[in-house]
Amino acid sequence: MKTVIMTDSCCDLPLSFVKENNIDVISLGINIDSKYYSDDLGQSINIKEFYDKLRSGIMPTTSQANAFSYEERFKKHVEEGKAVIYIGFSSALSGSVNSARIAMENVKDEYDKADITIIDSKSASLGLGLLVYKAVEMLKQGASKDEIVSWVEDNKLKLNHWFTVDDLNHLKRGGRVSGTVAAVGTLLGIKPVLHVDNEGRLVPVSKVKGRKKSIKVLQETIKERIVNPEEQVIFISHGDCLEEAEYLRRLITDEVKVKDVIINNVGPTIGTHSGPGTIALFFLGKER
After folding, report:
1. Which sequence ranges are marked TM in the entry (predicted)?
2. I want to staple 177 with a disulfide (CB 3.0 to 4.6 A). Which of 31, 126, 136, 181 is the partner?
């Protein structure tokens, strides 16, 4: 039975990679300037325009994918005789995985032989993207569905997410920092360094003074925590700050010999909460 890899738009993978590898991506949604857009990897709303709106003070809202969206797609694949692996955005940050589970149960009630596996990645942005990337590569190399599911489940809590943001006010709105911390931090040029924990939650780890120092902390972190770097494709996502993402890439590759580095935008769903100037780094370590 042929296997199809599914995920959602919070994977932040390059659209070209998604299309080349026939990855089925469920779109979350954003409401911005009184208009609804699908978060479809930059096809419906230009990423630069989106971040420019945030910089101008416009505040979007986001919406998860509903069960009906998943049910339609699951049914299509089942009717075509395909097995499905859905790797979803962290359940601690969105209800989309729960929607997928409801849809899976509905489809299995209708189709006895439906073969659908739902994986809560406990991951976000290109952390989720890294897991999907690896699943796709394994599929191309002839791995079975069970082998792919086992690898993702065994490694998802080794997937390090480390990031920093340029504007604390976006984290304040999401309840990640207090209003006082945001105001004082902005005044003093304090930049937080955060990671995603084993529950898939965003957790502040440290604070440093100055943007370049916060990016340097990301480089120091990967030096300390990465395992078998020469075998790893690592990922960097950014909130419309490509030059700084490239700066981080150079810092890393000057001292850590990785297989490759993939850089892409933080999409609108996550970007709504992290803001312009976000820099995030993803790689495998012994643990998160």
Report:
1. none
2. 181
